[in-house]
Amino acid sequence: MQKAKGKVVSVNESLVGARIIEGAVMNGEVAYIIIEDGTRLKSEVIDVKPGKIAYLQVFEDTSWMKVGDLLEFSGLPLSVKLGPGILSSVTDGLQNPLYELAKKEWFLERGLIVEPLDTVVTWHFTPSVAIGAIVTGGSILGYVPEKMFQHKIFVPFSVQGNYTVERIAPEGDYTIEEDIAMIQDASGISMSLKMAFDWPVKKPMPFYERSVPIESMPTGIRILDALFPIAYGGTACNPGPFGAGKTVLQHSLARHSQADIVIIAACGERAGEAVEVFKDFPKLIDPRTGNSLMDRTFIVGNTSSMPVAAREASVYLATTIGEYYRKQGLNVLILADSTSRWAQALRETSGRKEEIPGPEAFPMYISTLISAFYDRAGVDILADGNTGSLSIIGTVSPAGGNFDEPVTQATLLSTGAFWGLSRALSDARKYPAIDRIDSNSKYPSLLTKEEVSFLLELLREGKSIAANIILMGEKGITDETYIQYQKAELVDAVFLQQNSFHDVDGVTSPNRLRLMFDVLKAIIDAPIAIKGKEGIRSHFNLIRQTYIDWNIMRVDAIEFEQQKSKLLNLLKRKKHATENI
C-alpha cells in the first residue's frame, strides 16, 4: 500500500498543519514529520479539513520545524505492542522504554525510537491448541511464564471469523519475533502469528461478557474499605488541592491494594514526583509475594516537562495495556495521575485549533472524552470461564481545590466513587485527608450497609456539634451532646486515620478491619455515666490512646489480645480515673 505524503504549512507549538499532496489520510493515523537534519518526529492526525488540510499533534519538541518540511503518513493508527515482557518496564507515552532510551542518550534526543518489547529475550512457550483446531480473535494459542503469572498468548483480537490452525510451534523457547502459529481461513488465506501483536490505543478492547462491578477490592486503607470502597472493575475520582496527599494515597494503593497488576500512568504530573516513583518502586517489596513490587507493575512516565501532546497518549497506552491484562484473567488497577494535566493538554490543543471553547476554555467535548476513558473499566467474564477486571482511579488537581471546575465535575459524573481530599484535614495532618462527609461510593463496603450508615450518621452529627461548640463553646451544649461529639472524634482518630509509615497500622486486612469495627461499635454503644466536660474528655482521651496503641500491634502478638481486653475494660468505668487498668 502506497503511503500518503504531505507538507507542513503551519507550526503552532505542538499543533502542525499539513497539506496532503499525495494519497488520503484518516483521523488517528500516525505520521512522521521529517525535519531538516533527517530526524523523523512522530505525530498523530487529530483532524482532517476540506481542501486536503490535516492537523497533527506532535509528540516531540517542534523547535526548528518549518513550513515546507515533508510528512510521511503511516496508514496505521497510534498503537501499542502487546505481548510478554510488559511487566516491570517503564515507558513514555509512546511505549518507548525509558531505561533503554537513557542508555542511548543521557539527554533524550528528538526522534529516538526503541522497540517497546525486548526482541532478543526468549520465552518458554507451551501450546494449548492442536493442528486442526478452530480459533478466532482472542482464542488462546498457549502460555509463557511472565513473573508470577502465566501469560496467555492470544490470536490477535482484530482477527475476525473462524480460522483453522495449520501449524503450532512445539513447546520450547522463542522470541516475540518468531512465528509460533499459522492459521487459515475458509477461503484458504493463511496468516502467521507471533507472540506479540499491535492494538490501537484509542479503540476499546471488546468485552466477551461484561459484568457489573459488585465485589469490593480491599485497599488496606480503612476509610476506603469501610466507607468509600472501590470494586473490582470500578472507577474512582480522587480530587484535591496541591499538597493534600493525592500522590501518597496512590502510592499506598499501588503497594497494598488487592490487585494482581498495577499500572501507574503519570500523565503530566510534576517531574519530581514521577522521579520519586522511578527511584522508589524498584526498591519496594511486594507484601503479597515478598518479591519486588515492580514484578506486577507497569509505569508510564510522561511528566509535565515532556511534550503536552504525549499526555493523551500516555492515558490511552496505560488503559490499553490494562485491558490486555484483564483479558489474561487478572485484576488490574490503573492509577492515573493526574487527569487534570491531560485535560489541560486537550485545552491547549483545542485553543490552537481555534475551536469554540467550553467552560474555563476546556473543549466542549471534554466530558465525552473523560466518560469514554472511565467506561473502559469493568469486569469481563472470559470465554474460559475466568474473570478479569480493570479498575481505574484518577486523580484530579483542580486549581485552588475548586471541585466545581469542569474536569472534576465531568469526572464525578463518570466514576462510581468520589474521594474528595480536604485542605483542612491535610493541614491538620490527618491521613488520609479524605473528606468524611462529602465523599461517597456506590460500591459495596467490607462492612454492612447498616454499619456504614451508622458511622456516617455519627460523623455528620459530630461535625454539626463541632460547629455549635465553635459558636457557643463547650458550656453551650449538654454532657450528652458532648459525649456524642467525643464518640465521633474517636471514630475519626482511631479508625479513619492511619499511620502510613507504620508497618502494621499502614495497611489493614479485611479481617482486622472487621475486628476493629466490632470493638469500636462496642465503645460507641456503651453507656457513659461520667459527668462534666473535663471528665468526659479525659475518659475518651484515655480510650483513644489505648486504641491507637492497639492499632500498631500485630494480630499474632501476645500483647494484641491483652490490649483489646484493656480497651474493653475501660467501658466499665463509672467515672474517669487515672490509674492503670
Helix content: 25-40%
CATH superfamily of the largest domain: P-loop containing nucleotide triphosphate hydrolases
CATH fold assignment of the largest domain: Rossmann fold
Q: In CATH's first tier, which class of the largest domain applies?
A: Alpha Beta
Question: Tell me, what's the shape?
Answer: globular
Give the helix tally.
14
CA-atom Rg in angstroms = 28 Å
What percentage of amino acids are in beta strands? Answer: 15-25%
Q: What average pLDDT do the residues reach?
A: 92
Please report the total strand number as a whole number.
26
Topology:
Elements lengths: L4 E8 L2 E8 L6 E6 L5 E10 L3 E6 L11 E8 L1 E4 L7 E2 L6 H7 L18 E5 L6 E2 L4 E7 L2 E6 L8 E6 L3 E3 L4 E6 L5 E5 L2 E4 L9 E2 L10 H5 L8 E5 L6 H11 L4 E7 L3 H10 L16 E6 L6 H19 L3 E6 L2 H14 L13 H10 L2 E4 L5 E10 L9 H9 L2 E2 L4 H5 L12 E2 L7 H24 L6 H18 L13 H16 L7 H19 L6 H12 L12
Parallel strand pairs: 8-21, 19-24, 19-25, 20-21, 20-22, 22-24
Antiparallel strand pairs: 1-2, 1-6, 2-5, 3-4, 3-6, 4-5, 7-17, 9-11, 9-14, 10-13, 11-12, 13-15, 15-16, 18-23, 23-24, 25-26
Helix pairs in contact: 5-6, 7-8, 10-11, 11-13, 13-14
